[in-house]
Amino acid sequence: MLPKNFTSNKPRTIVVSLITLVIGVLFCCSPAFGDGLKWLIGGSLCFAGILYIINSIVSKRSLFTMDGIVGVFGIAFGIIIMFVIKISLVSLLSQVVPWLMIAIGVAVFAESFLAKFSRYSGAILFAILLVAGIVFIALGICLACIKSWQGASPIVFGGILIVFSLYTLISLFIKRNND
User: Fold this and answer.
1) Low-confidence spans in the chain with pLDDT less than 70
2) Dist. CA 40–CA 35, nearest whole Å
3) Which terminus of the chain has fewer Cβ atoms in its 10 Å neighbourhood, N or C?
4) CA 100 from chain center: how many Å?
5) Number of domains in the chain
6) Do residues 55 and 16 touch, judged by C-beta distance below 8 A?
7) Would the pTM of this model clear 0.70, i.e. be above it?
């Protein structure tokens, strides 16, 4: 489930999740359309980053929250995609996404143990995070090492963004037991 501060800011969270969903769909479509979506994806990332930063400042009165950090990275990545990268977006994603997947997998794997032993007592959450971390790491390794998988990097990354945004949207409307 989402932290309480997400559910108390439902309108902003819904908007940010919908934008993340659109960005995920754009990443999934990027191999089919080539670099024509480069500006659209970069602009969408910048817009989503701005919304994350606004959400951070409005809800926590600080830029140094998870939303603020994600927003800064979103803007930076959007600017890099639009102005700095001279190679095709698919080539870039094929190089970056596997390592990003491994890093996310390691973070989720570590979070599973932190959640189990320091914050939560639920075995279900531990198992879900543990399996998700292992899946992320395995996908990242496969995308990095298997040549025939490398073209699928944008689609995998887009799929993860779609799943994350749908999870966030669904979690907003599920009643928490410990409220």
Assistant:
1) 1-9, 31-37, 89-90, 115, 118-122, 174-179
2) 10
3) C
4) 10
5) 1
6) yes
7) no
